[in-house]
Amino acid sequence: MKCPKCENLMVTERFTDDQQTGKFSFIGWRCLSCGLILDPTILMNRRQKKSEGVAKSDKKVLTGIKN
Ligand SMILES: [Zn+2]
């Protein structure tokens, strides 16, 4: 995994949201160089946006073939 900001090595790390719930924890990515943190929610949102874009372009292509 490369950091999207500085392209250095990122490592997996367990994060705990102690101040909010005291229970919530997740595995995320942390950049060793600049300290950028990516959590699973951010990564999932990016994937969903990408797949939505692909689906829309696929529909346009199919419509073009039918017409
Ligand atoms: Zn970085």
Question: What are the key terms here?
Answer:
alpha+beta; 67 residues; 3 strands; 1 helix; 3-stranded antiparallel sheet; binds zinc ion
Strand content: 15-25%
How helical, in percent, are the residues? 40-55%
- Rg: 18 Å
The count of DSSP E runs of length 2 or more, i.e. the number of strands, is 3
Helix-strand pattern: EEEH
Question: Which ligands occur here?
Answer: zinc ion
**Which structural class is indicated by helix and strand composition?**
alpha+beta
- Look at the structure and give the mean pLDDT: 77
Rounded to the nearest angstrom, the distance between the terminal CA atoms is: 43 Å
Spatially, the strands of the biggest sheet line up as: 1-2-3
Q: Number of folding domains?
A: 1
Label the overall shape: flat
